[in-house]
Amino acid sequence: MTATGTYSPRPGAAPLGRMIAAQAALETRMLLRNGEQLLLTVVIPTLLLVLFSSVDIVDTGEGRAVDFLAPGVLALAVMSTAFTGQAIATGFERRYGVLKRLAASPLPRWGLMTAKTLSVLVTEVLQIALLTAIALALGWSPRGNPLVVLLLLLLGTAAFSGLGLLMAGTLKAEATLAAANLVFLLLLVGGGVVVPLDKFPEAAQSVLGLLPISALSGGLRDVLQHGAGVPWGDLGILAAWAAAGLAAAGRFFRWE
Amino acid sequence: MQSKPAAPVVQVRALVKRYGPKTAVNGLDLVARAGITAVLGPNGAGKTTTVETCEGYRRPDAGTVRVLGLDPVREAAALRPRIGVMLQSGGVYSGARAEEMLRHVAKLHAHPLDVDALIERLGLGSCGRTSYRRLSGGQQQRLALAMAVVGRPELVFLDEPTAGLDPQARRATWDLVRDLREDGVSVILTTHHMDEAEQLADDVAIVDGGTVIAQGSPEQLCRGGAENTLRFSGRPGLDVASLLKALPSGSTAAETVPGSYRITGDVGPQLLATVTSWCAQHGVMPDRIAVERHTLEDVFLELTGKELRA
């Protein structure tokens, strides 16, 4: 005899594509609803771009300030979403059992990670659209090959995602919150975002130049400001960080 | 009622799970069949570890676990869509609204329940646009329950589903659990509330110190071992010796205070009929006749020598 009540079993997973799309949409909504996250991902990059372009605080070298700042702020936007925002959000999802509960759902773990990456990419598209519009309004004239810019942004996202997930999956949520904000601040200052690297002592420069944020901001600046071809050195640094970060996150990430 | 499938829904054999030097589960055997199975025991007895091993969260250190015939770790992908899980706490984005989260979990399944009806049923409609972290504990519990059933699973694991609920919300949860069984969904729930196990469960497994120390229906567990008591009032000075002769051997009968009588033994329908017919023969109207059955609480106390701490 088959029961036909309201709750009678009819199990089944939704199609994979639908699950991942739903998960990515939810993650993006959570991020856009979070005030502190918006401060990091939208308000701070926008303020830095507008403020430093219109007020001569930092010597940005030859040419207009906005041409120097826009690539740096785009790099900062990628870092704020892929690293800081993702680390903090994922850290608290782990702490509040969201990752645990979703692990019992039909959505496979790799599907969840894919959805997180999609959500990061959607957020970055919104950030870059906004920051590009503001920079253009401030007189920015970007140069170079858009495909190389895209490649830099994607590799930068991979590098920062690996590091963010590594932090979120190994530290306590509060520690991740503190550390991710601190790293954000340090890399903002020392990663060539608004302050040119050549303002630092030479010994420091060679170390700072190896940071993922320096590689991303430097690579973007080479292309967008100076119209360079393919910045292989910066792409190489980003690829190394991405490989190391993602491998370590895959190895050490704890779901509970 | 459903015809019961032959295969058990959960089969745990000699399960061992250690956390560092601490052994949480120590050679536990459990067979759960279709219907409602309560895993009852004090805090720290190994209930959650056992259930989380069935859900695929933990790898057994020894022993085997089969859920719907599947290995919860190696065959997780096949198992996950067929089970519903309610964690003891959490599981929801702190910024998500109740309805939003429930709709999301529904979207992960092929044939989910009607989300509006489920929200209505569990009284979550009033949560409106409130984010999860601002919901009351009871609302959070009901949302977690709704998330466990929305995918129309065959088997639902509920880890302390009524902890911290007020009596009304508790009853609403019990009603839903009973409806699930009625519609052919099997339920495994953990609890340290005796009355919850007695009220709901077809089968109760009492867990203590990481093993199952007794298993059976609430009736079987309450009957086994301990004696039950029947009390009635009548006119003082009845012939207790004559009454005792009518009762099965092993019973006792006494007038505790004038006009109050107490009978102990295997108190069942047969004994009750014997007492009332003896009263009828002797022209006695038994007033305030009452059967005091042993509760699971007594059973637990007897088996472990300790109170079930809440």
TrEMBL record, chain B:
Q: Sorted alphabetically, which PROSITE patterns does this protein's record hold?
A: ABC_TRANSPORTER_1, ABC_TRANSPORTER_2
Predominant subcellular localization, coarse grouping:
membrane
Matching entries from InterPro entries are given as: AAA+_ATPase (IPR003593), ABC_transporter-like_ATP-bd (IPR003439), ABC_transporter-like_CS (IPR017871), ABC_transporter_ATP-binding (IPR050763), P-loop_NTPase (IPR027417)
Q: Topology versus the membrane, per the UniProt entry?
A: Peripheral membrane protein
Q: Where in the cell is it found?
A: Cell membrane
- Residue ranges the record marks as coiled coil: none
Q: Name one GO molecular function term.
A: ATP binding
UniProt keyword terms in alphabetical order: Antibiotic resistance, ATP-binding, Nucleotide-binding, Transport
Identify the domain of life: Bacteria
ABC transporter domain boundaries = 10-234
The protein depicted here goes by the name: ABC transporter ATP-binding protein
Organism of derivation: Streptomyces chilikensis
